[in-house]
Amino acid sequence: MRLDKFICESTELTRSMAKKALHKGVVTCDGVVIKDSSFKVKETQTVCLDGDVISIVGPRFLMLNKPLDTICATYDEVHPTVIDLLDIEKPDDLHIAGRLDIDTTGLVLITTDGQWSHKITSPKKDCGKSYLVKLVEELDTGLIETFSQGIQLKSEDGLTKPAVLEIIDAHTARLTITEGKYHQVKRMFAAVGNKVVGLHRESVGEICLDDDLEPGEWRYLTDEEIASV
Ligand code: URA
After folding, report:
1. CATH H-level superfamily of 3-54
2. Model pTM?
């Protein structure tokens, strides 16, 4: 890769700023000052800018245990965002693979890889998302069949895709859906006369929220977790 492009991809510098840095003689490649922007950097070489090693960050995949009152967005004027919780280089390159509401907690997947997140969010890919749901009204076992048949949400064309409901106790259930319509879980229960008072995402596909992560904590995904999508 050309040295000026390498500098742009591994720092916040624009192409013209990279060229200026090269011109000033503050860029070295394996200890040798290089001023030529078109110099070809090899993978094995160590590039330094102002004495600091710079390197290109590859695709990144991570999970966060989203706490209450945080927003799944990259920027918000009022509330902290999930991206604010990541003390990480180049946060602007990251995006959220399936957002949660401000009052929903649990598993949020964040990545730089658009194709990977598409496999999670596209309803065509049938990637299940499981939620632990707390409800105001008592749960009726007949709802298992109703949700598996799909239900009509207000202002939507057609039924929801088949969803799997597991009743845990009178006011708690686990619901697995493969879509991500706006407020989908809350609207599904509202459509059958119930009200969600607690919502926590436990898993996305085969990726389960790590029990060791306290609310607000995150970690990188393992290779197996990345490949499972
Ligand atoms: N469904 C909802 O209603 N809210 C969420 O945050 C996620 C799914």
Report:
1. RNA-binding S4 domain (3.10.290.10)
2. 0.80
